[in-house]
Amino acid sequence: MSVTMVQDRPHMRAEEEEAVPAIFQTGRDLLPDITKLADAYPYPHGVLGRAGAGRYVEGLAARAQYPGEGWYAATLDGEVVAAAHLSVYGVGDRSGHTLWKIRHPLLADGRTADYLRLLLETLTGVAVRLRIGTAKLVIFLSEYETEVIAQAHNAGFQCEGRFRDYYRLGETCLVYGRTVS
Question: Could you tell me the pTM of the whole model?
Fold first, then answer.
């Protein structure tokens, strides 16, 4: 288990100011807590925030093919305050460059969005440590996921593309990316 230190806390509630979340890859034991976040997902989505979100969370957990793939959680006093799924999206020509995809950054209701930034920064570090060479991380986000978009930017990700009508008609999908070595 690794612990990520909180350095910049302008958006934290007073009681969270000194709180440092533990961020680690989860086992099956935390999937019910991640499912609660998925069930409460506040943005338009085809699966999250709807019946069946739990089966989807468990399905992603079961897909791991490479070391390090799976759900990661930020916890405080045993409570999951943020979570996201990390997976290898491609290995290119096997020259040492790996493409990673971060799926479904989730934040517990009433928690500071800064936990998402910490989680994204941790996932970036995990990707670099797990596979030799460079890493490209991507996150596909709906234009409505404003908290995640802001924290992705704060974690060093840049908007690298846009797709109109990608998830739903009239909605824009933003592709955020970060290349690291």
Answer: 0.87
Say what the pLDDT of residue 2 is.
35
CATH superfamily entry for domain 2-180: Gcn5-related N-acetyltransferase (GNAT) (3.40.630.30)
Beta carbons within 10 angstroms of residue 37's beta carbon: 24
Query: What CA–CA distance (Å, rounded) separates 34 from 57?
Result: 7
User: Contact 39/60 with Cβ under 8 angstroms?
Assistant: no
Q: How far apart (Å, rounded) are the C-alpha atoms in residues 142 and 171?
A: 7
Show me where the domains of the chain are located: 2-180
d(CA 177, CA 84): 15
Token readout for 28 is 């099956």
C-alpha distances in Å from residue 103, one per residue of 20, 36, 139: 23, 16, 6
